[in-house]
Amino acid sequence: MHAVVLHEFGPAENLRYETLPDPEPGPGQVRIAVRAAGVHAIETVLRAGVTEGLVPPLPQLPAVFGGEVSGTVDALGPGVDPGWLGRDVVTAYGTPGGYAELAVADVSALHPRPAALSHEAAVAMIVTGGTTMGVLAHAGLRLDDVVLINSAAGGIGRLLIQHARALGATVVGAAGGPVKSAAVRELGADLAVDYDQPGWDKTVSDRLARERVPKEGLAEERPGKERPGTRGSVTVVLDGVSGEKGRAAFGLLGEGGRYVTYGAISRSVFEPSAELLAERGVTWVNALGELLAGPENTPDYQAQALARAADGELAPDVQRFPLSRAAEAHAALERRETTGKVILLP
User: Fold this and answer.
1) Are 72 and 87 contacting, i.e. CB atoms less than 8 angstroms apart?
2) CA separation (Å) from 85 to 3, 29, 30, 72, 96?
3) Between the CA atoms of 342, 265, 174 and 272, what dihedral angle is there, to the nearest 10 degrees?
4) DSSP code at position 133
């Protein structure tokens, strides 16, 4: 089979498209002919060999990245129900990794692919969507919330916007660059800002301080919608960026606000101290830490995400790269040129 292999930590071009022996499923496992594989931002950090911050242990080399796989079961290991053969499935735990034409997974880690979802949409929802469900479970969004979503043009950010809009909350989407902020506006955020611009947080505060968001501004108003809470303040921040952008978003929270974190794509960590939280009257939930500490909930979150996408409640956006161009996908992610979920196609 063809696969993308990392032999040495470093830049994206260290990812090599090679030929490897076909994997064989063991007891309780199936082999999947991969139709789509997901790329996660943390994989770019691991590929570079970074160890500090919110980063898992580095893999043993040579390594094939990517556990997010959707495809068709083409071989069964000992003890597996024959009914799995030929079924379309999606999993978050493909091995040796999803950056390959074939992957192996335990039967217990499989979800049947909903017929209403393409392989690309299914693989976009299995981890990104599952994480989104976990974040929402810890965020406790309400109709009267003013929600600021950092990295709003990313895979999770887009799903968070859709959920918050459907709920009826006021949505502020922050993303990097005019193209991404325009995409956030098109998703229906009440206010879209470019957080690469100096003073972006003041822009948010000033706009929320007005009774309505003007149509000529960074986003279109929703007629008749009043701003809940303290004028000029945000009630909830959903932050997967951290660093200085996370710190600026935290500063927009009014008293009684909630700061919910689920990652640090800036590769810099901002964690509010207990003193700062008490001073501001803000609560902090590390949703990523909670998700990692309670992995028993993960299958349920994944199933919820797939079901909501199949029902049309949530729609993932994907950016496609051929498997052979995985290095380009990594480089684009690092340059923050991608929107939505990055998918590799064998």
Assistant:
1) yes
2) 23, 11, 8, 8, 20
3) 150
4) H
Look up the pTM and report it: 0.85
Q: What is the pLDDT along the chain (346 residues), one digit of tens a residue?
A: 999 999 999 999 999 999 999 999 999 999 999 999 999 888 998 999 987 655 578 999 999 999 999 999 999 999 999 999 999 999 999 898 899 999 999 999 999 999 999 999 999 999 999 999 999 988 989 998 999 999 998 889 999 999 999 999 999 999 999 999 998 999 889 999 999 999 999 989 888 887 444 433 434 334 334 434 444 589 999 998 888 888 999 999 988 899 998 876 767 778 888 888 998 889 888 877 676 665 667 888 999 999 999 999 999 989 999 999 999 999 999 888 887 799 999 9
- The answer to whether 99 and 41 have CB atoms below 8 angstroms apart is no
Give the pairing of strands 234-239 and 253-261: parallel
What is the C-alpha separation between 71 and 67, in angstroms, rounded? Answer: 12
Domains of the chain (ranges plus CATH)? 2-116+312-345 (3.90.180.10), 129-292 (3.40.50.720)
